[in-house]
Amino acid sequence: MKKGLTIGHLYPDLLNLYGDRGNIQCFRKRLEWRGMEADVREFSLDDPVDFSKLDLILLGGGSDREQMIVCGRLREIKKEFRDYVEDGGAVLAVCGGYQLLGHYYDTQDGRIEGLSLVDLVTEQGSPRLISNEVIENPSFKMPIVGFENHGGRTRLGDCEPLGTVRFGYGNNGEDGHEGVLYKNVIGTYLHGPLLPKNPHVCDWLLGRALERKYGDGTLSPLDDRQEEEANRYIAARFAGGAAAGAGNRKAGRGRSHAAHGGNA
Ligand code: GLN
């Protein structure tokens, strides 16, 4: 029988800002190119979720209003979701979905309770943090690049960030951290087509999910020259050759706010 992964996309009708769905396509293609199958299951709010059938979960971004709707449902699946994570289940949670991994997200309209899967909290701030972003993590062979647009400021408790901000704002615009890496869970403010831009992140998640399912997470190499070239271009354009730090974060800030508003 062919190897493959079952990928659960939680609440794409509500959490799908900036084309987060493209991340599912990236999972699928990178499995298929290696002769493996992707069985993608979309869950709406009322659908029961059997976590024992899932190998990889995507929780996308959403507006505060949509997060509030989802939060009621998350309360009901919190225990099963936590067991899945503690058992090494792979998760990609983006922006609004990332905030929901934590204990809470405080907004001007009230508290959105999170899943408490990861030790982090989020509070709404002003202005929104909107920028291209470049981050680095020595465990990944290339920088991770993307785009952020969030009102929430996230602070990590007892867990590691996904990376260090070289350009952009990251979790809160202050501590130089972006996202979270906990067991086989990646939470990040980088949304839109995060994985096509960062195939190394896609393969990290696929590898972890395959390892858990088959005891072997080895992935055959793919021809990623174009993706790597694009990643290099973006990293050089925004973060330059040297580690960028606060100076470049300010540059991102100046450029970003004018065109956006609202509580996305
Ligand atoms: N509503 C959240 C915020 O503004 C998340 C936004 C998003 O998912 N892009 O912080």
Outline, from the CA principal axes? Answer: globular
Sequence of strands across the biggest β-sheet? 2-1-3-4-12-11
SSE series: EHEEHEHEEEEEEEEHHHH
Secondary structure: helix percent:
25-40%
Strand content: 25-35%
Alpha-carbon Rg, integer: 17 Å
Enumerate the distinct ligands.
glutamine
- Give the number of helices: 7
Parts with pLDDT < 50 across at least 5 consecutive residues: 242-263
Structure characterization notes:
- With 264 residues, this protein is of the alpha/beta class.
- It is 33% helix and 28% strand.
- The chain contains 7 helices and 12 strands.
- The chain has helices at 22-32, 64-86, 96-101, 194-197, 199-214, 225-239, 246-256; strands at residues 4-10, 37-43, 56-59, 90-94, 104-107, 110-113, 120-136, 144-156, 163-167, 177-178, 180-182, 185-188.
- The strands form 2 sheets. The chain has a 6-stranded mixed sheet with strand order 2-1-3-4-12-11. Strands 5, 6, 7, 8, 9 and 10 form a 6-stranded mixed sheet that branches.
- α1 crosses α5.
- The radius of gyration is 17 Å and the shape is globular.
- Bound molecules: glutamine (GLN).
- Glutamine (GLN) binds next to α2 and β8.
